[in-house]
């Protein structure tokens, strides 16, 4: 027998002497000294070394590093400013990720599982990392098996190993049988001894791979990687063409040819785009961490922002965990006092009562003289629990407590009364006396109904506002519960949820995924859903093109959480749900979800904005390099010019825009949406700059003509790029307008301060060509406005 409640002499007292006392303090110390400890690192983030390595050793840092070294050799230093910008960017990325790591690590400690371990005959909760070989670990519903072991005690112990083996049905475990780490308890209780700990445990490798920074699918990351791949392919032939053109066709000096080649290559690299994506995610983690939201996989922030269907478990999500008994209705003339005695004995028979049974325990304490001789733990699959009881008079009886519509045949008179109560949003359990043995497969058949236990659920005060938020954002909410459909619909109706007046009994759902998906799209409330059905429902919605999030806190939610695009668990939920979820709400507040959605939308919307800036620069850089090579003329810019322009029109403003508030709905096809604006913007900007350059070449002459030509072309390129920034900064707010004006002021200062003119080699000569440069830039601005309007109408996102 496990260390569970005993009811002899009527008390609901815990056994003080378990069958297996566990290790002694000396044995624990000996195993710790021998290294037999469960030391698998449960990480909430990458290590500091990983963060530094991933930010420093990147493909583009390597390319820019080589170009920077080349410029240091040929000089002057102002043409190598882009190297210092990369150092600053990398430093910012490292600092922000370390901040995120600190937040994640502190939250992970709060949410860390603490198994109950017996030592010296006493049970205590300890951190997972302190479990040693040979420890006796107790198990109850929802507990995760943290190490491999052998069952010592079983009290109807049922373990789900589907996350490891793919087998959907729970396995009943008897003493002597093996249990594997990574599985979890769905019913019953027991204890096992740890036979493999640390990295030797079955799921240790899985745990390593599933560390907190593992990546769910991220369209942002995938899209940016795709863009960078194309840029890499373009850089090599462009570099070769530029260097050959300057050396052999134009007979330019080697150092000058190298500088012009570097100037053509560096702006093609959208290096800051990768940085800003990482920074935006990292800052999102920090912001959500302040609201006690643990994001176990960073792109989950993005994923939840793309979700269009949220499947909600009623208990623990829309309602608070606790319940109260509001009424007891005897059936068939049964004595109410005897019913209360039986309920008290049933409550005392379960060492780990769920919320419903706890409410009964609180209302009906155990009476003297009752003893439990056997127990059947509650299972969400069968929808009832039971116990074999011996009363004060020695009579042996078997009782079941569970869903009335499961235990009673269709059309039973009691079900009409149950329907009335369910319609009021009340939860109803049936107490019934069984004629068969407790472990008989047909124990629930032909039971004798004895009483209806009416429970009142506590609605979460923030649930209504959260449901309204999702409705306003165009996200469909589906309540999926194991409770009676009418009762669930009544609860959802109290919260003002659309479709709550037409609840669907999941037992009548079609098995075919396509047919099921149609019903799911039409309905909003589903009751009597089994754990396997929850999983099937998630799959059916995904098959119809929906991005699905699943919330839950109970062990019956694990399979659906695992299969959903984004799994969200409550911090007070079972260890199994927290293990498979990408997001854990440590404050147990459903109202935190809108914050996660908003954070994801901020990241996606802002990165899409700034990506257009970066890729506009890439497009016009490629175009200018091709035009210069084809026309056999010198590249118009030095690296210092493009470093200045990139800083003022992209680098500084992109950093602020990437972190700004943004409530725009997340939209798919990131690469397509960015390139449809970046390509025409880059072409218009590049052609405007090249037109000014050609005009300046015909206007200026003499040995100092090239610097004058470069200055005029730089002015057009800056003004055109600034107009792209002005378009992207819309809709305007005071700080966005101020940001654009500040960047323009920065360039003006460079043009009027003598030492900055010399440093950047920028000096406008005369008045005719500078005003022509401004005029060409104005024409480019008009073309940009027209192009953006046409694209917006013909190719909507």
TrEMBL record:
Region (Disordered): 1-24
Sequence ranges assigned to domain P-type ATPase A in this UniProt record: 116-209
Source organism, top-level taxon: Bacteria
Chain segments annotated as transmembrane: 56-75, 81-98, 230-249, 261-286, 610-635, 641-662, 674-696, 708-728, 735-756, 768-791
Biased composition (Basic and acidic residues): 1-22
Compartment(s) of residence: Cell membrane
Membrane-topology descriptor: Multi-pass membrane protein
PROSITE patterns the record matches: ATPASE_E1_E2
Cross-referenced InterPro entries: ATPase_P-typ_cyto_dom_N, ATPase_P-typ_P_site, ATPase_P-typ_TM_dom_sf, ATPase_P-typ_transduc_dom_A_sf, ATPase_P-type_domA, HAD-like_sf, HAD_sf, P_typ_ATPase
Protein name: HAD-IC family P-type ATPase
Keyword Transmembrane: yes
Organism the protein comes from: Streptomyces chrestomyceticus
Annotated keywords: Membrane, Translocase, Transmembrane, Transmembrane helix
Pfam families: E1-E2_ATPase (PF00122), Hydrolase (PF00702)
């Amino acid at each position: 027998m496990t260390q569970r409640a005993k009811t002899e002499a009527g008390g609901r007292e815990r056994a003080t002497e378990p069958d297996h006392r566990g290790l002694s303090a000396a044995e624990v110390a000996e195993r710790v000294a021998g290294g037999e400890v469960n030391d698998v690192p449960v990480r909430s983030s990458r290590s500091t070394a990983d963060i530094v390595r991933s930010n420093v050793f990147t493909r583009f840092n390597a390319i820019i590093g080589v170009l920077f070294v080349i410029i240091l050799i040929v000089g002057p230093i102002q043409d190598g400013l882009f190297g210092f910008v990369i150092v600053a960017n990398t430093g910012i990325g490292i600092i922000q990720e370390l901040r995120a790591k600190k937040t994640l690590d502190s939250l992970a400690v709060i949410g860390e599982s603490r198994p109950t371990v017996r030592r010296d005959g006493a049970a205590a909760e300890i951190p997972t990392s302190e479990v040693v070989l040979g420890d006796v670990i107790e198990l109850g519903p929802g507990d995760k098996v943290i190490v491999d072991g052998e069952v010592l005690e079983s009290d109807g112990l049922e373990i789900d190993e589907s996350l490891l083996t793919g087998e959907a049905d729970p396995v009943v475990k008897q003493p002597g049988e093996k249990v594997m780490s990574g599985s979890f308890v769905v019913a019953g209780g027991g204890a096992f001894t740890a036979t493999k700990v640390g990295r030797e445990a079955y799921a240790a490798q899985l745990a390593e791979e599933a560390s907190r920074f593992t990546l769910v699918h991220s369209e942002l990351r995938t899209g940016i990687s795709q863009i960078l791949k194309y840029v890499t392919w373009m850089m090599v032939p462009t570099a070769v063409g530029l260097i050959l053109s300057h050396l052999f066709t134009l007979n330019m000096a080697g150092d000058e040819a190298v500088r012009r080649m570097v100037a053509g290559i560096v702006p093609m690299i959208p290096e800051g785009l990768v940085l800003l994506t990482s920074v935006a995610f990292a800052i999102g983690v920090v912001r959500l961490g302040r609201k006690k939201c643990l994001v176990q996989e960073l792109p989950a922030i993005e994923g939840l922002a793309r979700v269009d269907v949220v499947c909600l478990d009623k208990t623990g999500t829309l309602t608070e965990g606790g319940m109260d008994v509001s009424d007891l209705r005897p059936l068939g003339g049964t004595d109410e006092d005897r019913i209360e005695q039986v309920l008290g004995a049933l409550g005392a028979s379960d060492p780990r009562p769920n919320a419903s049974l706890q409410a009964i325990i609180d209302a009906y304490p155990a009476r003297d003289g009752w003893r439990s001789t056997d127990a059947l733990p509650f299972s969400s699959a069968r929808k009832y629990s039971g116990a074999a009881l011996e009363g004060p008079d020695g009579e042996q009886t078997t009782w079941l407590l569970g869903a009335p519509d499961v235990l009673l045949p269709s059309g039973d008179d009691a079900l009409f009364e149950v329907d009335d109560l369910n319609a009021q949003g009340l939860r109803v359990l049936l107490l019934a006396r069984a004629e068969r043995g407790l472990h008989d497969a047909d124990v629930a058949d032909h039971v004798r109904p004895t009483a209806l236990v009416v429970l009142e659920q506590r609605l979460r005060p923030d649930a209504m506002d959260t449901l309204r938020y999702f409705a306003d954002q165009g996200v469909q909410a589906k309540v999926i519960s194991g409770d009676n459909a009418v009762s669930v619909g009544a609860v959802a109706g109290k919260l003002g949820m659309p479709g709550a007046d037409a609840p669907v009994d999941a037992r009548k759902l079609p098995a075919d995924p396509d047919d099921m998906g149609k019903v799911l799209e039409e309905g909003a409330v589903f009751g009597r859903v089994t754990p396997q059905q929850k999983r099937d429902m998630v799959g059916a919605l995904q098959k119809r093109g929906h991005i699905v999030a699943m919330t839950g806190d109970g062990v019956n939610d694990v399979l659906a959480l695992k299969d959903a695009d984004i799994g969200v668990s409550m911090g007070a939920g079972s260890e199994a749900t927290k293990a498979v979820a990408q997001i854990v709400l440590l404050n147990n507040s459903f109202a935190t979800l809108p914050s996660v959605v908003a954070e994801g939308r901020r990241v996606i919307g802002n990165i899409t904005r700034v990506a257009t800036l970066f890729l506009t620069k890439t497009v016009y850089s490629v175009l200018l390099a091709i035009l210069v090579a084809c026309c056999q003329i010198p590249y118009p810019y030095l690296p210092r010019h493009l470093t200045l322009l990139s800083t003022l029109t992209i680098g500084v403003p992109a950093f602020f825009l990437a972190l700004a508030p943004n409530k725009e709905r997340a939209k798919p096809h990131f690469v397509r949406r960015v390139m449809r604006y970046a390509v025409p913007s880059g072409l218009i900007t590049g052609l405007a700059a090249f037109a000014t350059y050609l005009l300046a070449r015909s206007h200026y002459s003499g040995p100092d003509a090239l610097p004058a030509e470069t200055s005029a072309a730089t002015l057009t390129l800056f003004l055109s790029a600034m107009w792209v920034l002005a378009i992207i900064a819309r809709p305007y707010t005071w700080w966005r307008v101020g940001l654009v004006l500040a960047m323009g002021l920065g360039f003006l200062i460079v043009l009027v301060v003598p030492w900055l003119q010399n440093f950047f080699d920028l000096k406008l000569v005369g008045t005719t060509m500078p005003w022509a440069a401004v005029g060409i830039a104005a024409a480019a601005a008009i073309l940009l406005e027209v192009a953006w309007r046409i694209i917006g109408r013909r190719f909507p996102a």
